[in-house]
Amino acid sequence: MPQLTLQEPSLRYAAMAVGALRKASNVEFEASSPGNELAGDNKHYLNAIVYYCEALQLQAKARPTKEGLRTAMLASLLFICFEAQRGNMPAALKHITHGFSMLNELAACTDKAPGLVRIAPAPPALVQEILDCYKPLELQSRSFMGSYRKFFFPPKPPAVATNQAPPSQTASPRSVSSPPSQPGTPWANAHSSQQNPVGLPSPQSQASPQAMSDQQTPPRPPPQRPPGIAPFTKHSPYFRPKQTNISVIEDMPAVFSTLDEAHGYWTLLQRQLVQYIPLLTATTAQLALTKVKDMKELEIKLDSVRQNPRISKFLEESRHWLQRWSTSFSPLLQRAQDNRQNDEQSYLQAINFHIEFLILYIYTAMPRYSGVETAKDLTPQYRELNAIAETLIASRPNCGFAMDSGWTWPLFVSAFGCRDPEVKQDAIRILGKYPIRNALRDSRVFRAIALKNLEVEAMNATEGDEDQQWLRLRRRELVFEDLGMNIIFRYAEKSQATGEWELIEEVAAFMVGEDGQLNWHRQPISESVSILSGVC
């Protein structure tokens, strides 16, 4: 990137914008509260905006050449970094969508793929670096799929009430969309192969759906999926081992010889399992838990998931490969622990692989679709996850922002799902001690959600035995709405009028207060689908 910024003005201005924005803030800057410190006469922030707009304008004017495509892919990462750093989720997600559209062309071997492959003197190395940057963004953006669909494919309003907003939404995605200086959504051109045979247009050169509707263009059928985010398959580009000799998971050795070898087979294992994400998402949606009438129906629906043959296959396959990988990795992990004083970096790398294993182990236990004993049996994994996460977070400097996956999500899963109160509190403590935004995930926001969940669990514990309490907790759902600007939390609460435990829905803006809490208020039950799937 430093070399290319000398050659490409758009990259240079984009990098300067990111640097100026960092200069304008500090370690304590609340990324979840945009404008908290970046307002008024902050000259660094004003410079950042000027540089950013200049980079967008240069990229919009760029010609679709092979070198231009390389620049567009790298500029997309810098634009994502800029918007995510200042907490502008809608704009960051639009840039991510544009980047995905380019990478998916590369992976799908379409007519644009040859141009993508020849974007650098050493294309495999550059493409791998870019994929490494996009991998956490790909996984994190899955939390916003419902918002994507609503934004790009809004339901058609009745002809007589075209100006009325749907009552179930607290805010329209358009009401929080980026200002004109920021990129439009690339849905219109993401799947078109007739234009720009070598590359794809820049983010700003593409019109938003609303702008396109004003132009005199012939109608086209809508794309069949949200743009730029292709469904996970075994061929997804985000899970390819760096070592070319590692290509088949069945060749996994009994004991890994190096951390690179362990990483290669871990990547294959991830690729094997992530293809089931659409199945898990669809299963969660098909349960339609918001329409459940009583606790008996709730129990039947939740218990039916494990009887699904495809889910059973997923559980059997995932546990088999997780166990094989863990067995092969254990001697390597032990050696890294024994040699920690002499080689701290290898130890940190090894426990980072182990925390990824732990979170997948918890996922595949599917506690939400299991009894309370299954959830309680995961306590050792949650406790170990907390300890490793704190070690990893404390081992590196914290400037308040990073473009990697980080450990916010594993800690939130521990704070939300563990049945041991001490382990839950420990996860919340760690989230509070090390505030950071990892791309789209802000530890302050997830800590605030975990605090809200503590209140819900305390209320839930006032009635019924352990099994009844767990059944009610399995009804909890979490949704990121309006391109991440609003958070929905559903849970069961006892009605004072009927004496029954009824589902309620609360919503809060993506804005943490000075007390570390979110400002929740109740609203009617919406149709939005939870991001938790089998994790409870």
Offer a few descriptive terms.
2 domains, 536 residues, four-stranded antiparallel sheet, three-stranded mixed sheet, 20 helices, mainly alpha, 7 strands
Q: In DSSP terms, counting alpha (H) and pi (I) runs of 4 or more, how many helices?
A: 20
Biggest beta sheet summary: 4 strands, antiparallel
Q: How many distinct domains? A: 2
The beta-strand count equals 7
Low-confidence stretches: 27-36, 158-239
**What percent of residues are in strands?**
5-15%
- Strands of the widest sheet, in order across it, are 4-5-6-7
Which value, in Å, is the CA radius of gyration?
23 Å
The assembly state of the depicted protein chains is single chain
Structural class per helix/strand content? Answer: mainly alpha
Average pLDDT value?
Answer: 79
Return the string of H and E elements: HHHHHHHHHHHHHHHHEHHEEHHEEEE
State the helical fraction: 40-55%
Keywords: DNA-binding, Metal-binding, Nucleus, Transcription, Transcription regulation, Zinc
Biased composition (Pro residues): 218-229
GO molecular function, one term: metal ion binding
Biased composition (Polar residues): 161-171
Task: Describe the protein in words.
- The protein has 536 residues and is mainly alpha-helical.
- It has 2 domains: 2-212, no CATH class; 249-451, no CATH class.
- Helix content is 52%, strand content 6%.
- The chain is built from 20 helices and 7 strands.
- It has a 4-stranded antiparallel sheet with strand order 4-5-6-7, with helices on one face. A 3-stranded mixed sheet has the order 1-2-3.
- Strand 4 and strand 5 (486-494) form a beta hairpin.
- Helix 2 packs parallel to helix 4 and helix 5 packs across helix 7 (123-141).
- The model is unreliable at 27-36 and 158-239 (pLDDT under 50).
- InterPro entries: Transcr_Regulatory_Proteins.
- Residues 218-229 have a biased composition (Pro residues).
- One of its GO terms (molecular function) is metal ion binding.
